[in-house]
Amino acid sequence: xxxxxxxxxxxxxxxxxxxxxxxxxxxxxxxxxxxxxxxxxxxxxxxxxxxxxxxxxxxxxxxxxxxxxxxxxxxxxxxxxxxxxxxxxxxxxxxxxxxxxxxxxxxxxxxxxx
Length: 114
What we know:
By secondary structure, the chain is mainly beta.
């Protein structure tokens, strides 16, 4: 098998069928889009919960990234893509509790997770 974009060899020849699926990203349920989250100093963590767009895939792994956004008037999606992540992890669950990462110097800054 070869990577179509680079032409690099990915595996030796095999004689089994397999499926590789790339699903749409999940839908964020908690916290709601552009909502205020509870003060991290009192709660100790932020809860994130999402709904998968498909139930056909088993052993799904999600990559979770938390970023700090600084421009209230800017495009949140573009800021998220350009921001340096404060916290990144992977999980198989659809609910995740994350502590506030070290280095967040402004408690009133916007945080974005995806």
